[in-house]
Structure formats: structure tokens, C-alpha cells
Design brief:
A five-stranded antiparallel sheet has the order 4-3-2-1-5, with no helix packed on it. With about 70 residues, the chain is mainly beta. The radius of gyration is 13 Å and the shape is globular.
Amino acid sequence: MPVGSYVVDTSTGRSGVVMGHEGPYIQLRPYGGGREWDAAPEAVREATPAERPKITADCRPADEGRP
């Protein structure tokens, strides 16, 4: 998976963005920041177009939309 791809780690159900590759693992981070985790390549799949808005919406800044 290329760096920057929106993906789902099927072993945990978590979604995130590919940050890099280290040894046999793909390094993922939640969209918008947070702690990275390593995932086995066979457990990572690309997020579907329907899943992408949910991935990004879950990480909106808390003050977004406030006056």
C-alpha cells in the first residue's frame, strides 16, 4: 500500500492512513493524528469509497463549526 492510502486493519477493525513500511509490517496512524501501530500486510485492505468519509469525519477538530 502506498504511503497516504486510507486503509482498514482487518485484524483490529481500526481504520487509518499508511505512514510507512518497517520490516514486514505496514505502519498505520489514525487519520488526523494519533499513535501509530504496526499491521501485518495480509490484514490491511484499502478503504472503500463508502468508508472514506467516515474515516475522515471521525477526526474533525472539536471546535469545528463553532462560532
